[in-house]
Fold this sequence. Notes:
Layout: H1 2-7, E1 23-27, H2 37-50, E2 55-60, H3 62-65, H4 72-88, E3 96-100, H5 106-115, H6 120-124, H7 127-136, H8 143-157, E4 163-165, H9 171-188, E5 196-198, H10 233-241, H11 259-272, H12 276-282, H13 288-314, H14 317-345
Parallel strand pairs: 1-2, 2-3, 4-5
The chain binds ligand 1.
Amino acid sequence: MMLAMSDASPSRSGTERSDRRPRALSGAQPTADSYHLGNYFGAFRQWVALQDEFEAFYFIPDLHAITVDYDPALLRERTYVAAAQMLASGVDPERSALFVQSHVPEHAQLAWVLNGITGFGEAGRMTQFKDKSSRSGTDNASVGLFTYPILMAADILVYQADKVPVGEDQRQHVELTRNLAQRFNHRFGETFTVPEAHIVKATAKIYDLQDPTSKMSGSNASHAGVVDLTDTPKQVAKKVRSAVTDSGSEIVYDPATKPGIANLLSIYSALTGRTIDDVVAEYEGQQYGHLKVALGDLLADFVGAFGDRTRELLDDKGELDRVLAAGAARAREVAAPTLELVYERSGFVRPA
Length: 352
Ligand code: TYM
């Protein structure tokens, strides 16, 4: 008996463990008209790769999206685009639960409980909050933006997730999640699985094509260096051809001295599945321009096919609604018992 118990991972709670597959969970905010290449390589590719081995939960965090100024009609439209782009990336609703965060009330309910065990200073140290709030001035930032990482922790913990596939910029939030899970378990008894970030180094941070020292982001001042998944093939080829590259002319992979070329090589490698060394060898002795034209063409083909698939999916909103409803139903089957356990452990009297 003792042996069997010590076989279990120490990070797991006592409930329903050994008989299930490990779980993966992730989300991507619907705060732009489209996801970009950073989201695709940093996140969606990894989501898709984990679907076989893991029981996967992927969702559109609409509750997170309202922590900054937004337009309700636009949010509704962007939520559908988000779902379509996740599906176009290869998220398979037969294998993964794909859903909208606000369809599963347990996220917000658990977030409230976690708010009670999170320190004000601890939340204030989140670099993403500091960055985002400094843009509008801290006085204008919402309380929701401040408490945003705690809702993210709830997103993860309510599914007892083992792995969280994200880009580098979410590492600190997953670290906070681990701390909160451990704290709750310590104070109230083993309840949560302590999750791990799953960050694939090669694509953990895709950089802006115009400023290869900052990450590609929908909120970058100019969109010239951001490849959106809704861009036309022509736009994409142009963006890549106009990418800022470095001094010198030799094509070598050196992120420290040649961040522009390194970024293009990373994207090239991720898109084709070839190693960076292999790509560098192919372009030996050639100019930056050759690499840019070739990558521009490859990416143009990629967004062309991706855009077609997305539009097809968006043409049938009824089907998208069905997929999202089925995903939310599956999600609630897992989230509801976790919340019940948390409420019991928290000392709440349960309805008779
Ligand atoms: P978000 O919406 O900013 O980004 C979605 C995913 O894309 C990754 N990403 C990138 N990866 C590589 N290079 C880039 N330039 C790049 N830009 C974005 C992000 O790391 C992320 O994986 N807080 C989250 C959303 C969220 C979430 C969650 C994630 C809410 N709840 C629970 C995981 C688990 C966010 O704002 O990601």
